[in-house]
Structure formats: structure tokens, C-alpha cells
Amino acid sequence: MLHLLHTFVSVYETRNFTHTAEDLFLSQPTISAQIKKLEEHLQVKLFIRNGKQEIIPTKEAIFLYPRALQIIEEWDDTSQRLKNQENFRLQCIVGCSHTCAVYFVPKLIPYLVKQFPNVDFSIKLMNSEEVGQQMAQNKVSIGFIEKPERNEAINQMAIYEDELVLAGKKDSPYWLLRENESGLRFYNEIYLRENNLIPKILYVDNNEAILALLREGFGRSIISKLAIPQDISYEEIHEHHLRHFYLLTHKAIFKDVLREIAAYIEILVPHLIENKIL
After folding, report:
1. pTM of the prediction?
2. pLDDT tens-place string over residues 9-20
3. Are residues 146 and 167 in the same domain?
């Protein structure tokens, strides 16, 4: 049955039987037969063919996809631990957008490690959109992002209110912008548009590089106040100066410990704010 779920997941993600056959080193008739066998076992239709190439998942397939990912992950994790004769510690991969990973999540990790001593935490840094994609594909356990993410498989909760400021010298003709998928790019573009500003643009795909340029007196950019060191000047902005960090969790959570971690974070963050740690 597990190999049928692997095939289903691949077809769901590629929307193409031929591509799945190539990815799994199987023939296309074999892929079709495996999907048919899974449909017969579940007594539902999983895909609808629309022409020769396009394949549309049914509502049953949409329901099954995150659960199939969880089943595959659980099996892979279990078999690997048994082979390695591990002490059965649990893994929690935290997917974070840049600002969250550098200035927010590190404040949480010492408390999480202490509260969950049998869990091995790891942090993966990416932009907000990639965190959402990795969550949807079950490649990370929980996520922290800087802008809302629309995905039917994910719960998102506003967990922290982040103040944005305009950093850099006022007379600089350059504006520093992150990549398209960045949460900060969104707020910078709003500010430029609403203030009718048309500066010269320098694109930078890393927060630390932006801070380094600002230290050199080059450029301006809207960034999180959490990230501002003492040697960089900034001014407060009054429009769109607040944004939220969001906690992402899977709607279908099969590991109780992940549910417990998410619930603990919801309690922990207000405590850290109250004690001015955040």
C-alpha cells in the first residue's frame, strides 16, 4: 500500500502521469494501474483527466494528499530509526522566513528545548512563500513567516506584532529591495507606491546584506525594528508600520508532540513579550 501512496503523491504534485513515471522509473501504464488500484481500495475517484495531459485532483484527492504525506513521513522515520537503533527521539523541523529565523525564533528555541527534552529541533531558513510550500509538502513540522500564506492544508495564526521602520540616510537615492517572495518586499513596495517615490533600486536577497549596506551609508529600506543595530539610523513610519509574524501548523497533525509544541508557543510568546524578551 505504501508504494501506491508514493505514486499518488507524485501524480498529485506533478499533475502528470508521464512525469510521475519518469520520476519513479516506471512505465506510464504501471502508474495508471497503481492509481486505479488505490482508487478501488479507497472506493473513490482521485483524479479526473482533462484532455491528454492535464489531470485534475478530486476533492477526495485534496483530502488524501496531506494525510498521505504524513503516513509516508511516519513510515520513513520509523524504519530509519529501527535500522539505526536510535533512542527514538522525535524531530521538529522549524521552517522560518529570514527575519523570523534570525531575530524571533532564536528567542523561543531555549524554552522549547527545555520544555521538550526528547525533541531534536532544527531550523531551515527560506522566504515566506517557500515556508508555505515546504509546510504543504510536509517537509517542515511548523513554520514562522512574515506575511499571510494561503494554503488549504495549513493553519496560520498571528503570533507576534512586528514594528517596521525606515532605515538608512534620507538623502540616499537608492532603495534596497528583497526578492519577490519576501515579506519585507511587500511592505517596501506599498510604501514606495503610496508616497509616490521612484528611487533607484538595488535588489538584495538577504537581510544581513541589506544591513551591511545600510551601515556603509548606502540606500534606504523598510525593515523590522528587531533587526536594527545601534549604528544604523532609522525613522518611524506611520502607515503600514505594523505587521504580524504567523505560526504555521498542519491541519492534519498526527504527531501529538507537534500539537503540544504549537500550543506551548501560543502561551510562550505573550510571556516573552510581557517580560520584554521580545
Report:
1. 0.67
2. 999 988 888 888
3. no
